Amino acid sequence: MNRWRALPLLALVGLSPVALAESTGEKIIQLQQQMAVMQGELNSLIAVQQASKGSQSALADVLTRTQRLEQEVRTLRGDLETQTHQLQIAQKALTDKVNALAEQQAAAAPATSATASTASAALGAAAIGPAAALASAATSTSSSAVQGMGQADYQRAFDLLRQGKYGTAVTGLQDFIRKYPQSSLMPDAYYWLGQAQYVLGQNDAALRSLYAVQVRFPQSSKAPEAMLRMAEIYQAIGQADKARFVLDKIIQQYGSTPSAQKAEAELQALPAAKK
């Protein structure tokens, strides 16, 4: 009975963020297409500039427009990732509630504990996938409590990030890291701190935050994602060799993950290394 009551809640949790993520993804594709056109214009103007030393104003205008489009793509990419992360948090919260309900039923009626456990596992798998559902089933109640350490403070900071208040979000995430060093949300906190700092143009600070995920939490799913962001920053600041090194490391350490596949694609897109 409780299993069927939980199913509508799963549908409500998953619908809106996915639609938002798809819409944001389409905007990113459109902006990237515009950037490709702008790059062609830029190359043409550079050729004219070299030939006649003219078109100074037009070249400056194209450069400005290209930089603005790059910033928009960067911001939209951050929005897409925050929406996806928000969906994951909502799904996990629902799974925890279902598991808690199953435990209550088991305590009240031992004879039905097997049925309740089966219902909990089925709902968990539907919400977060087979691998994550297995991991959730293996954790105890005390482990769930550890996972929630500082949850309210983390959520407040993340909500600020989602609203585009990056400066305030940075402060909130830094406070969370200082107050809850033992929380299992630390990899996420460092990751989103780095993302916010990157959007703000604080590249050195962003690299330090993302590097902390890789070094301190290498088993976290956020570790290869943080390394991908590091490679992206290195490319943006013209350090292709460092970007190549990080991407190679992702493939070596996380070869069976989607992040490794992304790293391979980005490596192919990088210019050839200088000899």
UniProtKB/TrEMBL annotation:
Any GO BP annotation: FtsZ-dependent cytokinesis
GO cellular component, one term: outer membrane-bounded periplasmic space
Listed Pfam families: TPR_6 (PF13174)
Secretion signal span: 1-21
Domain of life per record: Bacteria
Family: Belongs to the CpoB family.
Function: Mediates coordination of peptidoglycan synthesis and outer membrane constriction during cell division.
This protein's name: Cell division coordinator CpoB
Organism: Acidithiobacillus sulfuriphilus
Gene: ybgF
